[in-house]
Amino acid sequence: MKSPVYHINRSLSLKLCLGILFCAVIVFIVSLGFLFERSRRMVKQEALAHASHVLENIALRVSGHLDEVEIATENIEWLVMENLEPDSLFNYARRVVEQNPGVNGCSITMEPDFFPQYGRNFSVYSLRDHDSIISVFEKPYNYYEKVWYKAPRAKNQACWVDPYNDYNEDALSSPVMIASYCKPLKTDEGDFVGIIATDLSIKWLSQTIS
Length: 210
Hints:
Elements lengths: L3 H7 L1 H71 L3 H14 L5 E6 L11 E8 L2 E6 L9 H9 L3 E6 L13 E9 L5 E10 H8 L1
Antiparallel strand pairs: 1-2, 1-6, 2-3, 4-5, 5-6
Helix pairs in contact: 2-3
């Protein structure tokens, strides 16, 4: 009995069929590899495009919340400067928190000895506590070394300060990380009289974006 190799060597048609089959297999494997690589690139590009879109949306939403805090601060500033009285400042700090759901707290702190009847230190503070708002005339402590006071005073302009933990168990304070938009209070003559700082809860911002 003759072997298959013998028949292959003797039959031209069989040789051509096997050659064509071999070429077809090679073409199929190359095409499959090309399609796989192309599909991988397309999936990667789509994933990157989707991620970029999501990040852009997050950035816009974060920017929107930051703008809300800045606008709330700007809107109350002129009232503060028109009514530099302790009770008025107390009410203005509370109003900022009441009228702006994205605001965690607001403080208005005056320069040392601005209100002599209150001693060297004077600051009013309102804090959102779940569904209620707590407002106080703050107990004396060294406000003037806090970043939310020092930074805008040194720069002589409004600024955001990096997120920080300002919790103090002996005083009304936020138990979560906050970022503050701090704006100098100045008279028409340019005299510096204090700082208004409006706080944004990082935890609230994260939950809102999520």
